[in-house]
Design brief:
The structure is a single chain. A 6-stranded parallel beta sheet has the order 3-4-2-1-5-6, sandwiched between helices. α2 runs parallel beside α3 and α3 packs parallel to α4. It has 7 helices and 6 strands. It has one domain: 3-Layer(aba) Sandwich (Undecaprenyl pyrophosphate synthetase). The protein is of the alpha/beta class. It starts with 8 loop residues before the first strand and ends in a 14-residue tail after the last helix.
Length: 240
């Protein structure tokens, strides 16, 4: 596949697992299990396409308000998937990273995440970035606190603070900002996801629920992106 006009970094809000299950009179956890299958498929397609970074919104800080049984299932699912798939991820030269707050995440989940991250830390292929226990506003608050502490300790002059300094204080330090945000399920909002990083991203919304977002739907999003004019606030030259 040609990499011309492809996004370097794609972020995805994987929405609609529960509604997918409800439409089929299935329990909500079944929707999450089907969603895991799509994760594997889309990761494979993104790797083939030459995408440099893929960020998936897996679990938000607001998701803790869901029924305890569902939250427990989601935690167990993450552990199970990582244990089963990490060798394949590693074998495909994918570097696995996680962004979000660690506080509040069960120790067994953190241990599993840390082991997967350590195994793949030297891989040079696509970066698979999982947003887990993540909230965009909290990320900005954490970055602000980090910068304020550096100023207070004399490690940073307040006059040095600029967009680059702030970006390096975010969870996504070292990663390019997303070029494309995909959200499934028909909802047209970013839901507290990568609030700073999405400033100039192209937004793609689809009615498909996440369990139905297969490689063909992914290709549709890439084709749509190729036809976008990205101006970053500039005016197109005359005749364009």
């Amino acid at each position: 596949m040609s990499t011309v006009n492809l996004p370097q970094h794609i972020a995805i809000i994987m929405d609609g697992n529960g509604r997918w299950a409800a439409q089929r009179n299935l329990p909500r956890p079944q929707g999450h299990l089907e969603g895991v299958k799509r994760v594997e498929e889309i990761v494979e397609e993104a790797t083939k396409a030459g995408i440099k970074v893929l960020t998936l919104f897996a679990f938000s800080t607001e998701n803790w308000t869901r029924p305890p049984e569902e939250v427990s299932i989601l935690m167990r699912t993450l552990i199970s998937v990582l244990n089963k798939k990490i060798q394949k991820i590693h074998g495909n030269n994918i570097k696995l990273q996680f962004i979000g707050r660690r506080k509040g995440v069960p120790a067994e989940v953190l241990d599993c995440m840390d082991a997967a991250k350590e195994l793949t830390r030297n891989n040079a292929g696509m970066i698979l970035n999982i947003a887990f226990n993540y909230g965009g506003r909290l990320e900005i608050l954490d970055a602000t606190a980090s910068i304020a502490t550096a100023v207070k300790n004399g490690d940073l002059d307040i006059q040095q603070i600029d967009e680059n300094i702030f970006s390096q204080a975010l969870y996504t330090k070292g990663l390019p900002d997303p070029d494309l945000l995909i959200r499934t399920s028909g909802e047209k909002r970013i839901s507290n996801f990568l609030l700073w990083q999405l400033s100039y991203a192209e937004l793609y919304f689809t009615e498909k629920y996440w369990p139905d977002f297969d490689k063909n739907e992914f290709q549709k999003a890439l084709d749509d992106f190729k036809n976008r004019e990205r101006r970053y606030g500039n005016v197109l030259p005359a005749g364009k």
